[in-house]
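Before relying on records like the one below, remember that each one covers exactly one chain. Contacts with other chains, cofactors or solvent are not represented anywhere in the record.
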Amino acid sequence: MSSPEGLRDWLRVLRRGSGAILVLLLGVLLILPLRGIERLFHGQRRPWTGPHVQWVCRVVLACMGIRWRRVGRPMRGPGAVVANHSSWLDILVLNAAMPVFFVSKAEVAGWPGINILTRVTNTHFVIRDPRLAQAQAQEFAARVRAGHRLLFFPEGTSTDGLRMLPFKPTLFQGFLDPALPEGLAIQPVSAVYRAPQGADPRFYGWWGDMDLGPHLLAVLAMRRQGCVTVVMHDPIPVVGQSRKTLSTAAEDAVRQGLRI
């Protein structure tokens, strides 16, 4: 991935980047008092701040010049979402498509800059320690009962956007907890990236040991952006499933969506 070259590239970086940062800052400043008021009326539910984050992400994508569309509808009722993981852009794209709360490894909470966004967006952090498994399962169940739509990346890492890694069945064990609400379902979602014309098909992919800074600059500097399609598949009822059957059904649906 090439870095910005020439004055026009850097002007695009400045224009798009400054607009996106301004929107994010305003969004963070507004969500803090909004959440305080929301807590008084709705407790742990997030009927206001969820859509607020959704609209902030839509405006940020518009500032960056990245077009997106949604195919299908978000599920209703208690449940969670699983999706393929291709890029840091997934945070913006999937939040733009529906109000969700990401599930992330605990290490991300310490990343400078990112840690602020994850805190204000109520990211659900997971510590990979068997001793904490029961407590974390209880926290997950409490959030689902509160109506939070938690989003998991069952591949466990990001890819180049063209391929998809097998889903890890162990990540679906938490959906089988008897403490979760009845009628629980899992909605598979496919995020399909289309690179700008003439660019590497993997242009939006961010994986392996790629540095965030150069990738971000390259995306902002691109003269004409590509697009993203978010495909929302039919929800999969959890009742009667095992972690392996849930994993297989969700993976098959997401893979099918990537072929559109």
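Residues 43 and 146 are 9 Å apart (CA to CA).
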